[in-house]
Specification:
Layout: E1 18-21, E2 24-27, H1 56-72, H2 78-81, H3 84-100, E3 104-107, E4 110-112, E5 124-126, E6 128-132, H4 139-149, E7 156-160, H5 171-184, E8 189-191, H6 199-204, H7 207-215, H8 219-232, E9 236-239, E10 243-246, E11 255-258, E12 268-271, H9 284-289, H10 305-311, E13 313-314, E14 320-322, E15 330-332, H11 334-343, E16 348-351, H12 356-359, E17 372-378, E18 381-386, E19 406-411, E20 420-424
Parallel strand pairs: 3-9, 6-7, 7-8, 10-16, 13-15, 16-18
Antiparallel strand pairs: 1-2, 4-5, 6-19, 9-10, 11-12, 14-15, 17-18, 19-20
Length: about 450
């Protein structure tokens, strides 16, 4: 697979002789005008509750404050809205929750009413489940989506399917908002990991530089804490025993078999199934045992499952094959979808990972103009892709914008196996801001990765 050279370094944050205004810079000869005064109803700067318990009012204030600051302040003024001490408290609290969750989260939407006894079966209520695809730092579209779908509540569960940061200009605010929802409603909001929640991708596609610009001398600290939080994000979920969700999709079996000659752990034979002729589908038991706490999921070695789950793509051809376009992960065919669904008595696979830029290069697959596609229809059920970032990417080097819609999936009781797609257009106008990466030169669709620069430890 051809590898790119090392990506160009991101532009440095402004030095002391410049001020950042909506992503641009001005010299001290034209000093930054006085900052606008926030509305009286906003509680700014945001403070962490003394008892550490978030409320819906705190969440509403966070949403409104991020929205207002994105439209009225320079990115470097974000600490005046969200101080680093509050960042530390939020990320620490959320990280502890996320790291305790298993690799594949079991989501049970059948809830008992808080006013019912355990024996009162008739009072059992089933929650609706909303599955969200890539959002890529498009804060205003995310805020619209959550309002449109209805806020997380006891009868509405959200599953976010990864790729919260990079490419868009508000990846940090997007991620922090989702962490706040997780802390507020830990059993109604689930955050899964995407391939962009990694050191490699965030160093190339803008998030690292975004953090440095917004938090200045505290930027390295904030970025490091975000990476540690990324490592704790679960890889997949099973919803109501019927639906498997993951950012990329399915994964290979990485079997460990005893040597015929020797006994003991030191002489185990590792069969990585790296040859496409002997690749086989992995099991949920193997997924549960994979080591997800890696900055960059490896493309070689014994811990291949996280990379597969985050980077793989469906194929129209049967079988499993290495994903040569991306250089990591797999391509899997309809027969593998059927095998996985049938084995675990599932009806639906929901994945994300492919926007309009990636899909235009994929022969035989529908584009992402409507924010979703139905990729496999097999005897046991379906495989669908959902992408929740409309008019993506925010910064486009193409002559004509893709102007795609975003979408999210609603799963309703009692069966949860009939995906209802809700399409939506981008919020306009977006606040003016400059990109945090060289979008004209950086690869558009995660192809031909510079694997030598990825961290595998």
């Amino acid at each position: 697979m051809p590898l790119t050279t090392n990506p160009p370094p991101p532009p440095p944050p402004p030095d002391s002789t410049t001020a950042t205004i909506n992503g641009g810079t001005t010299s001290d000869l034209n000093p930054e005008p006085p900052s606008p005064t926030p509305p009286d109803e906003l509680l700014i700067p945001i403070s962490w509750p003394e008892d550490g318990t978030l409320s819906i009012d705190w969440i509403h204030n966070l949403i409104s404050s991020f929205d207002w600051s994105s439209r009225n302040l320079s990115p470097s003024q974000l600490p005046s809205i969200f101080p680093v001490q509050v960042f530390d408290s939020l990320v620490l609290t959320a990280s502890k929750m996320l790291h305790k969750e298993p690799n594949c989260v079991t989501i049970d939407p059948f809830r008992n009413s808080p006013h019912s006894s355990d024996s009162d079966v008739s009072a059992a209520a089933a929650a609706t489940v909303v599955v969200v695809g890539d959002v890529h730092g498009q804060l205003h579209d995310l805020m619209f989506l959550i309002r449109d779908a209805g806020y997380p509540s006891e009868d509405r569960i959200f599953v976010f399917n990864g790729d919260y940061v990079d490419r868009g200009a508000w990846g940090l605010e997007t991620f922090l908002l989702l962490l706040a929802w997780k802390v507020f409603m830990p059993h109604n909001v689930y955050l899964l990991r995407g391939n962009h929640e990694s050191k490699y991708c965030t160093s190339v596609y803008g998030f690292e530089n975004e953090v440095m610009v917004k938090y200045g001398d505290k930027g390295k600290h904030v970025y490091r804490k975000c990476l540690m939080c990324f490592e704790g994000l679960p890889l997949a979920s099973i919803i109501a025993g019927r639906v498997y969700t993951a950012h990329g999709g399915l994964f290979r079996s990485v079997t460990v078999t005893p040597s015929k000659r020797f006994k003991g752990k030191k002489n185990r034979k590792i069969n990585l199934n790296s040859d496409s002729k002997i690749l086989s589908l992995g099991s949920l038991e193997e997924l549960a045992k994979a080591r997800r706490s890696v900055l960059d999921p490896p493309w070689e070695g014994t811990n291949l499952i996280p990379g597969d789950v985050l980077w793989s793509d469906p194929s129209k051809s049967p079988g499993l094959a290495p994903n040569k376009e991306r250089g990591i992960g797999l391509l899997w065919g309809p027969d593998c979808t059927e095998e996985f669904l049938k084995k675990y008595q599932l009806k639906l696979i929901i994945r994300s990972h492919e926007g309009p830029d990636a899909r235009e290069k994929r022969d035989g697959f529908d584009g992402m103009a409507e924010g979703y596609t139905i990729d496999h229809i097999v005897e046991s059920g379906k495989l669908v892709t959902v992408f929740s970032a409309p008019d993506y990417p925010q910064f486009q080097a193409t002559k004509e914008r893709y102007n795609n819609k975003g979408a999210y999936v609603v799963l309703e009781p009692p069966n949860y196996d009939n995906p209802i797609f809700h399409e939506f257009s981008a919020v306009t106008p977006r606040p003016k801001v400059n990109p945090y990466y060289d979008f004209e030169d950086v690869i558009d669709s995660d192809e031909e990765l510079d694997l030598t620069s990825m961290v595998t430890s």
